[in-house]
Amino acid sequence: MGAGRVHEQVTVRESSNRSGSVPPSDAGAAAAAPGSGDRSGGASPLSRVPRVLRSSLLRVAGRRLLTAIPVVWGVTFLTFAVLNLLPGDAAQALLGADATPQEVARLRVELHLNEPFLTRYGHWLGSAVTGHLGSSLGSGQLVTTILAQRLPVTFELILYAFVISLVIAIPVATVAARRPGGVFDSITTFITMIGLSIAPYILALLLILLFSVDLALFPALGWTPVSGGLGANLRSLTLPALSLGFPIGCFYTRLLRADVIEQLGEDYVVTAVAKGLPSWRVLVRHAVPNSMFGLITVVALNVGTLLGGTVIVEQIFGLPGVGQELFQAIQTRDFPVLEGIVAVFAVVVVVVGLLADLLYAVLDPRIRYDNPGQ
Amino acid sequence: MTIPVNDALPVPGGLPAPGGPGVADAAAASGAARGRGRLRRSLALCLPAGFLILLIAACFLWPLVGSVPSPVGGSVLDSSLPIGSPGHLLGTDADGNDIFSRLLYGGRVSLEVGAATQLIGIALGGLIGMIAGFSRGLLAAVLMRVLDVLIAFPSLVLALAIAEGLGPGELHVIWALSFYSVPAFARLARAGTLKLRDQNFMLAASLGGTPRWRIVLLHLAPNLLPQLLTFALLGAGVAIIQEGALSFLSLGVPPPGASWGNMIASGEQTMSVQPALVIIPCLALLITVATLNLLGDALRARWSAR
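^ Those are the sequences you sent over. The predicted structure of the assembly is below.
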């Protein structure tokens, strides 16, 4: 009974707070779980937290994975449609401008490009469901092989970028929130303003200028696989990860700082201070963990945008990742490759959203109220 | 792209911007401090607004009024002049084109793309969002699902595909980037509409027999507009960054036409020798986007203070 009341309260506070400041969570929630529950106004994923706690986590996970199906379908269909609407097709793109019309026509028949749009999409979908993503129209390589080669690079890059952003955001926001308006806070506000305005590709170029050209600390180009040593591997990814991670780190800093300041005004903080806890302990053990929900939501939502952001960063640093392949696939209208990449992206976005939901439950101390030990 | 501002959609009457002046006025308890806070807030609004006007004037009027060398057709004899050369304030690039002039003309492209994508977003996205929020039927559900997919989509893929398909050019960049702005504004307008839908003035209008299209356009739209315009400032910054990205991937304004993105891209090739060719357009882009962000933040703080 008591626990139930707490759920209610916190849910109301969270949704009134978050639905506003981070509306894409609405987008993400709706996209990840079409047709589920109350979606009016700015319902955030957080409004689902109590339900996560009530039902078994596994069942929630299963349901969320099921809702991924329409999203993945929609995304692949849209990709197919857009690629189909573009002038020019794979046959023309593969053979180049010099090809005779006969050659183009022959390749078109070979690649089944003359069949109606829906038939081709149906074909692709039918085999994709069974795990056969087809092979590249250009190189003839299996799409699964291409993905297996390229995804690890991109995933490592994104993971590294997230680590950097959180390593920046959590401590900086915590210290800044201790004294809002203080010197450290003002400096932080200024720097995050720049970080929010800088594009990853601009940061990438400036970093190359500083660290590769002037200081020669990091390589400006190329990627070393893990087999070439973890140190060398990380070194080759540091600048790309920094150019992706710093701007989002600045965004997280702002978000978390505002949340921590808000939490510091809550009653439980007053209680913690009143019972004589040192202020850093109040901050680190109470206020900051309770401020994590917004951050988790946004991190989960950012995965999608970050996947898009890798395209240009991989291009600049010459990383053999999925982003480069994606750019190429668009240029050559290589739809099996593009569909494969986009489908994987969509699945990743949905799975990360699910992980975020599970993390809410882990982070939420109220789940312990339900334990018999309490 | 990973432009976080993208995610910081402003709120229908929501929180002040994180880190914005909203926190400052909580601390300002005494009268003097409150006065200082007000001064700071109006400065936070006026400085970026003034700078933005200066920027627009410089890009659009300076080449008409002042004497600026042509941005294209420079002579190879003048190539790669350093900053401060006579006649070339910021020097010249490898083709002998005046960098300052290219900066101004490139700024035109950036500002035009920023403004156009946001206007399309407000008009089209705002309309879609208002319809989706106002009507309660199947139409609303279908519209929202389509927007969900559009938003869940890695948007750069769509922009890249469209820009690639249409070929390079400023207008095509605008079409491609509108695929970002329309769903974002539609979401925002829908959320705002849901909040306003059941308020008394809306109820009064519909009880008075006002036709639905009139309610949407004359009662609903004016109430949503401030919020959409504030978001447009942040969105314009994002669009400018995206335009640079597309130009950088040679899908934007084709050379020799000037755009900050293709200036950065061409400067990158000689970056180790002439870093200024990269740094100057990068700074121009950064400052412009920062100005738009500051102005958007200040406006948002002002709206939410009411």
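The first helix of chain A runs from residue 2 to 21. Confidence is low (pLDDT under 50) at residues 1-44, 367-374 of chain A.

Shout if you want it in another format.
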